Amino acid sequence: MSPQDFVLHPFPNGLAAPAVALSGQLCRQGSRLAITFILSGDLSEVVIPAAAPTPSRRWLLWESTCCEFFLALPGRQGYWEFNLSPAGHWNVFHLSGYRQGIAEEPAITHLPLTIRRRPDRLTLSLDIDLAVFRPPAAAWQAAVSAVLQHHDGHCTYWALVHPAAAPDFHHPAGFILTL
Questions:
Q1: DSSP bridge partners of 72
Q2: Counting C-beta atoms within 10 Å of the first and last residue's C-beta, which end of the chain has fewer, N or C?
Q3: Are residues 41 and 19 in contact, defined by beta-carbon separation less than 8 angstroms?
Q4: Beta bridge partners of 117
Q5: Are 143 and 176 contacting, i.e. CB atoms less than 8 angstroms apart?
Q6: What is the tally of structural domains in the chain?
Q7: SS3 sequence of 14-60
Q8: CB 170 within 8 A of CB 94
Q9: What is the C-alpha separation between 170 and 167, in angstroms, rounded?
C-alpha cells in the first residue's frame, strides 16, 4: 500500500494554538503498520517531556503532549487506542465500544518507538505488526490525533477532523483513513 500523508488540525475552540504544524504518514504493508508523527515549528510553545531513561507502559499519557492513533475493523464495535509520548512512554488499549470497556491490550507488551528531537522538529515513529489483532488481509479504519500541552497548562486537541462539538478523538466519524 502507498503511504498516506496526514495533517492534523487544532480543535477550533478559540484557544490560541501554538505556532507549530502536526503532520505525518501512515503506511501498511501486509501485517505491518508504520506511523510517523512530525511536530514542527516553534516547539518552545509546547511542553515536550524529556526522554525517559526506561520508557514503559503508562496510563493518562493524554493529559500532556501525546500522539495518538486509533484502529477499528469496519462493521465492528470495538477498537484500539495507541498513546505515544515524546518521553518514550506508551500504551495500547482495547475498547469494546464507543468509549466503553477500556482495557490495556494484553497482546502488546512493548512498542518500539523511535523519537528524534531537534530544536524545531520532533519526530515519533512506530512500526507494529497488526497480526496480533487480526489476519493481515483485514481492512482497517484509522483516526489520528494528538494532544499538545502548553506551558500555561492548557491543552490543544489536534485531529484529522473534528466531527463533534467538543474534542472527541474516539468519535466514529473521525476514523476517516482506510488501511
A1: 79, 141
A2: N
A3: yes
A4: 122
A5: yes
A6: 1
A7: CCCCCCEEEEEEEEEECCEEEEEEEEEECHHHECCCCCCCCCCECCC
A8: no
A9: 9
On the question of pLDDT at 174 being above 90, the answer is yes
Digit-coded pLDDT (tens) for 26-74: 999 988 999 999 999 999 999 999 999 999 999 999 999 999 999 999 8
User: Cα separation of 44 and 176, whole Å?
Assistant: 31
Residue 79 grid cell: 477498537
CB atoms within 10 A of CB 21: 14
CATH (domain of 43): 2.60.40.1190
Q: How confident is the model at residue 20 (pLDDT cuts 50, 70, 90)?
A: very high
Residue 157 has pLDDT above 70, yes or no: yes
Please state the three-class secondary structure of 61-105 as a single string.
HHHCCEEEEEEECCCCCCEEEEEECCCCCEEEEEECECCECCEEC
